[in-house]
């Protein structure tokens, strides 16, 4: 049917643009109680007392809950399956508050406005505790992460990851050029249009139902069960359409509280955060400070690398313990380096907890690696593109940490095609002149993963069946975050079944009806779920053609599916007519269920090229031209691929130049807690963008496809920073490159 490779519009696009798609806050008016949180104004404090008498006396207030009357079960919001054990250091409402924005109490009332006003009336007495607000301070707070009883100590480091392969000392001893660079990256926020929201209600069967705009219904089920101290099967979780996530809704934050209130009161409860609350009480991208030392041979070969990075995960572990290892995994997949030493650590601070954010460690480690490599190239006199080409991994390379085959890695193709299309050599020869407005160009390469293999049981199970109207129903724990993964998977199924993507009916992810899946994370939807759906569609196609042979009285093996019909020689039958025939015969309609387990984790690759204009008087940077080249294996839907890349560039430019949650190092207050204080890239700041796709096919992916969603944002910031440094002759390494940082660097120079 030519669905794969076609520019198919989103299958839910019409519902979105006409307002028919109902988001979590748009549902029917069945809510009988609204919740509002009281958040901590302190970075670290003990709650001594809470006076809510005036609040409870208000007509329409249903109740007030805090640590004294809520479950105090430790949990970790980053688990994704019931029974999973991670450092359980979080509580619904802790007795000791660990960051500005931590949860003190919740009020339930008959209206949202009343709940908010009532929460503001609560009087709390605090005992201030010493707050650790910077990475330097955290590194003096050393000790085991848990005590003898397994309870969290909130000492550092929370987790470490180390690797040493090859002879690092010998590599540096033999180097013709040695360069050392320190890079720091800020906390940044997801800034989804939809703020965090959840709804829960008691069911007639005694369970609690939860409607959540989440990235995994099974993760919500597991986290809420752990927080409430109940069995996971006591909870029924349904996914709501998501108004943006970028990783920010990967962890259930409101769901434990909402479910608890529904169970306590027997009401349908909704809890929705304001924009300020979303900034202060959810998750951010981790801040990092890293140092990289690079040993180069006279011909540009990277002989060795020594890396040390500290990751500020904030007040609670969440999934921060995985970050040092995740960064290492991404780091060693990009360049072929014979000797390497890596030391990474995750540390607590009394700041907003961190979590997943489009790349999960990759933007930070690539900022360190690609900015450091550019400065090393400058010091040693190498062209930045040529230096990367000299060292980038080849197809079928084996990574030195996990020993995984990197598949059909086409990073070199990205660099070559990009340099030619961007006119790199000519532009680079045009040295920046000394007037007020200076131009520079920069490049950065990147790699990212395709799923969780081999670290987890990376698998997906789905069911597909023929419907009476001839359409196909897909039942799978899919979680489209708005990026079009439902459409991509529908195209894959339709390609096999001889249909169009619009003929595939995708059921909402639901713990009652779907098989377990870990959800949308780790760039796994197209590569893992898509391949699982392709195999499943093949199984269903065989089941359909088997019964079509009977209906058409055709020779076995002669029937194939085309344009919504079962076709054999000159005979054909629409799938709707075939379904009617089967029903008339009293037969079941064909269906298939299949599990696909990953056996590989190839790398996706990219090379980004940026041109900037810098105002040396004000320090303002404008990105004016941008080229993104991506090794995607095969573009299932080129239009959606291009859209993902454009969105990734928008996030990455903000990361490089503007975005910073800006936590006060003295008080822990979040300064960037609104769109008037937190600057993101808007349309006027976006450059001209060109996208080139390298489609050389990955044999282990569906129709040759690889992941694209997360890697689209990963090389952007270093490409922009490298362009600014080229324009100014500076060595700026502290993100974001705010105007004051740029002007200070020019003054110092």
CATH topology of the largest domain: Aldehyde Oxidoreductase, domain 4
What percent strand? 15-25%
Task: Report strand order across the widest sheet.
Answer: 3-5-1-12-9-10-11
Bulk shape: globular
Question: Structural class per helix/strand content?
Answer: alpha+beta
Going by CATH, the homologous superfamily of the largest domain would be Aldehyde oxidase/xanthine dehydrogenase, molybdopterin binding domain
- CATH C-level category of the largest domain: Alpha Beta
- Uncertain stretches: none
End-to-end span in angstroms? 61 Å
How many domains, as an integer?
Answer: 3
Largest sheet: 7 strands, mixed
DSSP helix fraction: 25-40%
Number of helices: 19
Task: Please tell me the overall pLDDT.
Answer: 96
How much is the radius of gyration in Å?
A: 27 Å
The CATH architecture designation of the largest domain is 2-Layer Sandwich
Structure in words:
The structure is a single chain. A hairpin with a 5-residue loop joins strand 17 and strand 18. 57% of the residues are buried. The strands form 6 sheets. The chain has a 7-stranded mixed β-sheet. It has 19 helices and 26 strands. The chain has 3 domains: 13-17 and 453-597, Aldehyde Oxidoreductase, domain 4 (2-Layer Sandwich), CATH 3.30.365.10; 31-130 and 196-272, Aldehyde oxidase/xanthine dehydrogenase, a/b hammerhead (Aldehyde Oxidoreductase, domain 3, Alpha-Beta Complex); 287-318 and 327-350 and 357-450 and 601-748, Aldehyde Oxidoreductase, domain 4 (2-Layer Sandwich). The protein starts with 12 loop residues before the first helix and ends with a helix. The chain is α+β, with helices and mostly antiparallel strands. The model has no long low-confidence stretch (mean pLDDT 96).
């Amino acid at each position: 049917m030519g669905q794969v490779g076609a520019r198919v519009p989103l299958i839910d696009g019409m519902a979105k643009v006409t307002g028919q798609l109902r988001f979590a806050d748009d549902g029917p008016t069945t809510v009988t109680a609204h919740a509002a949180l009281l958040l901590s104004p302190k970075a670290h404090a003990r709650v001594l007392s809470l006076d809510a008498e005036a609040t409870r006396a208000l007509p329409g207030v249903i109740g007030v809950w805090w640590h004294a009357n809520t479950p105090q079960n430790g949990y970790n919001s980053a688990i994704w399956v019931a029974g999973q054990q991670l450092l359980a250091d979080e509580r619904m409402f802790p007795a000791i508050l660990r960051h500005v924005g931590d949860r003190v109490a919740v009020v339930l009332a008959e209206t949202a406005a009343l709940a908010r006003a009532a929460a503001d009336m609560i009087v709390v007495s605090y005992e201030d505790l010493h707050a650790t607000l910077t990475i330097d301070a955290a590194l003096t707070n050393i000790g085991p992460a848990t005590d003898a009883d397994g309870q969290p100590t909130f000492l550092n480091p929370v987790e470490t990851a180390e690797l040493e392969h090859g002879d690092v000392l010998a590599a540096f001893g033999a180097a013709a050029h040695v360069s050392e660079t320190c890079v720091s990256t800020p906390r940044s926020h997801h800034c989804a249009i939809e703020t965090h929201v959840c709804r829960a209600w008691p069911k007639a069967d005694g369970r609690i139902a939860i409607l959540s705009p989440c990235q995994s219904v099974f993760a919500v089920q597991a986290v809420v069960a752990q927080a409430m101290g109940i069995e996971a099967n006591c909870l029924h979780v349904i996914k709501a359409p998501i108004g943006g996530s970028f990783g920010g809704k990967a962890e259930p934050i409101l769901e434990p509280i909402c479910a608890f209130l529904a169970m306590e009161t027997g009401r349908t409860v909704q809890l929705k955060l304001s924009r300020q609350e979303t900034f202060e009480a959810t998750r951010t991208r981790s801040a990092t400070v890293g140092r990289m030392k690079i040993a180069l041979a006279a011909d540009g070969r990277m002989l060795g690398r020594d890396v040390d990075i500290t990751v500020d995960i904030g007040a609670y572990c969440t999934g921060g313990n995985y970050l040092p290892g995740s960064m290492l995994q991404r780091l060693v997949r990009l360049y072929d380096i014979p000797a390497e030493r890596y030391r990474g650590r995750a540390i607590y601070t009394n700041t907003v907890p961190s979590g997943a954010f489009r790349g999960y460690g990759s933007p930070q480690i690539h900022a360190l690696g690609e900015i450091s490599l550019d400065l090393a190239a400058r010091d040693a006199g190498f062209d930045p593109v040529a230096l990367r080409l000299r060292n980038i991994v080849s197809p079928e390379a084996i990574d030195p940490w996990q020993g995984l085959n990197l598949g059909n890695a086409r990073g070199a193709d990205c660099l070559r095609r990009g340099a030619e299309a961007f006119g790199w050599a000519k532009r680079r020869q045009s040295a920046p002149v000394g007037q007020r407005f200076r131009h520079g160009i920069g490049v950065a390469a990147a790699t990212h993963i395709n799923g969780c293999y081999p670290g987890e049981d990376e698998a997906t199970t789905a069911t597909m069946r023929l419907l009476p109207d001839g359409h196909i129903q897909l039942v799978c724990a899919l979680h489209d975050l708005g990026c079009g993964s439902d459409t991509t998977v529908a195209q894959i199924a339709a390609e096999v079944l001889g249909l169009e993507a619009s003929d595939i009916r995708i059921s909402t992810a639901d713990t009652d009806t779907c098989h377990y899946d870990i959800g949308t994370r780790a760039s796994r939807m197209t590569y893992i779920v898509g391949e699982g759906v392709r195999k499943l569609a093949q199984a269903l196609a065989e089941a359909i053609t088997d019964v079509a042979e009977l209906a058409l009285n055709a020779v076995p093996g002669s029937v194939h599916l085309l344009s919504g019909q079962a076709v054999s020689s000159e005979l054909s039958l629409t799938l709707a007519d075939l379904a009617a025939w089967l029903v008339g015969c009293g037969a079941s309609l064909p269906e298939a269920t299949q599990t696909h387990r990953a056996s590989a984790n190839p790398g996706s690759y990219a090379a980004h090229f940026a041109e900037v204009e810098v105002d040396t008087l004000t320090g303002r940077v404008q990105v004016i031209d941008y080229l993104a080249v991506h090794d995607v294996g095969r573009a299932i839907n080129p239009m959606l691929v291009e859209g993902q890349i454009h969105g990734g560039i928008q996030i990455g430019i903000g990361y490089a130049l503007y975005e910073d949650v800006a936590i006060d190092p003295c008080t822990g207050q979040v300064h960037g807690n609104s769109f008037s204080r937190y600057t993101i890239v808007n349309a006027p700041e976006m450059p001209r963008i060109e996208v080139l796709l390298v489609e050389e096919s990955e044999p282990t992916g569906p129709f040759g496809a690889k992941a694209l969603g997360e890697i689209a944002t990963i090389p952007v910031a270093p490409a922009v920073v490298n362009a600014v440094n080229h324009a100014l002759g500076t060595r700026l390494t502290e993100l974001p490159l705010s105007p004051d940082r740029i002007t200070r660097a020019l003054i110092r120079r």
